[in-house]
Design a protein that fits this description.
Blueprint (H helix, E strand, L loop, with lengths): L5 E5 L1 H7 L16 H4 L18 H9 L5 H16 L9 H7 L6 E4 L5 H9 L8 E4 L6 E3 L6 E3 L30 H16 L2 E5 L8 H11 L8 E5 L4 H12 L6 E4 L6 H4 L4 H9 L17 H16 L7
Parallel strand pairs: 1-2, 1-6, 2-3, 6-7, 7-8
Antiparallel strand pairs: 4-5
Helix pairs in contact: 5-6, 7-8
Bound molecules: zinc ion (ZN).
Zinc ion binds next to loops.
Amino acid sequence: MRSRPHLFILGAGATKATIPNGDKYGRQSPVMENFMQEIGIDGLLDGVKLKTKSNNIEAIYSELASKPEYTDVVRKIEDGIVNHYRKMQIPDKPTLYDCLILSLRSKDCIATFNWDPLLIQAYNRVNKITRDLPQMLFLHSCVEVGVCEDCKHFEPYHNRFCSECGKPLVSPRLLYPVKNKDYSQNVYIQDAWYRLQYYLEKACIVTIWGYSAPESDKKAKQMMLKAFSSDYRPLDQIEVIDIATEDVLYKTWQPFAKNTNYHLNIYRSLIESLIGEFPRRSIEGYVKRNIEGWWDSSTLKLKECKTFDELALLMKPLIENESQNNYNVI
Ligand SMILES: [Zn+2]
């Protein structure tokens, strides 16, 4: 049980919570509504005849992508989106993404629907504290993912060349917001979904952070539910971290909770969730408390750190124990 993975699934709300005041230069992570205005590419729609009156990027993009005469506009919108996200820079101080990555281990996984590069940027600095870090899956691809078409190895796109064979890295096309998304659009996205399926089947805890499962992701939600429901798992746990009302969240995630005998907890922030109390030991802490009946609490909890030295110092006792193969809760 203890060696089972902890799976995190991230949506737009996770990036919002990570950079509440924007990125390093105050650049915001746009939401679907008013998306084109927010990233300053709404001028591309001048002279374009749209049936939709909506300002939502999904409605606009879906309509344009279905009309061959707008192929060029669609390509420009895609370029605008990629350019916007490529410019995003994680703030210098430790963020919630740094805390999240450092609070999981290589048996665990973070799967994200977000296109922004912040998670990879955070990974690239916390890996100086430990190399035992979670797997990452980009379910709609990501502007900072670079793939070597030759050895299928992937790494940050800004490295430009494959560190295994030296060939130029390519950036897999993002999965853009159309109603009927094709998850087999490219090998990279298809592979991410296969791997997500594995983690959904095996995970002891699944934490969904800031992902609202919008109507347009209906197929994604069905695929996730199918994999998660492959077994009755009454000892497992679902956590939802979100600021939406509890009614809405229960309604969205209840179908998943059926399989865990309704073990569904809702939190307002990352720190309140299980990794907040048991960083790098979430499954161990959960099993100890809920299955073995432990009544005490962890002495090493996640907290806001102003510097990376402080964050490294906080995690040090856990990482030192790991080098001795000791994964106990402390
Ligand atoms: Zn290569």
